[in-house]
């Protein structure tokens, strides 16, 4: 790729800084950061995100591109690759929350729907507490998970009061459409794109770690272990610090492979 030319989205600044020899483009997904939608739509779907990526790559004349995407971004990048494989040379999909591929999919997706409903009824703190609680769980969720007492927002340093805002892109836009999306694995397997599925070494049997492993199995590829956990690439963004130096070294290694 060419000389360095970066537009750094805040959540990827540390990782992007490890690749001064590459042209790195980051962006604010629809409904987040500088890309606020104004059409009043109640939800942003993976298909919309993938179409945004498709048009961005085309506008930049940057394809085929090497793409690193994590969490919901990995879901969107998988959808892009299934629909426009000619635009993606290598995709590193780090812990995509493809919860529909899990043995306990019904329970996990019901929890995601409940998180969205809690956000609509009670606001950010109670909904985010539920989100944090479920992503911390190890192993399959028990069938009675939703009947258990809701976690206390204060336990996670979150407010219990509702400030009336409903502009959180995770809770208000991408939940539950992102984790519920069913991927076209036939198209992904048929693509010339090299798809690498990353799993954090510290993720264990969390729901995102399990989902990433399930995606790798559906693609017929071994998952690649990355340093840290789900946020292993962060260097203090959003108050989270993973293992960004080691994470970047692993990412460089997998991108350099033929």
Automatic annotation (TrEMBL):
Which Pfam families does this entry report, sorted A to Z? Abhydrolase_1
Q: Which organism is it from?
A: Trebonia kvetii
Could you identify this protein by its name?
Alpha/beta hydrolase
What molecular function terms (GO) are annotated for this protein? Answer: hydrolase activity
What keyword terms does UniProt attach to this protein?
A: Hydrolase
The UniProt record lists the AB hydrolase-1 domain at 21-132
Where along the chain is composition biased (Basic and acidic residues)?
Answer: 1-10
The record, for InterPro entries, names: AB_hydrolase_1, AB_hydrolase_fold
**The keyword Hydrolase belongs to this UniProt entry's keyword annotation:** yes
Region annotated Disordered sits at 1-47
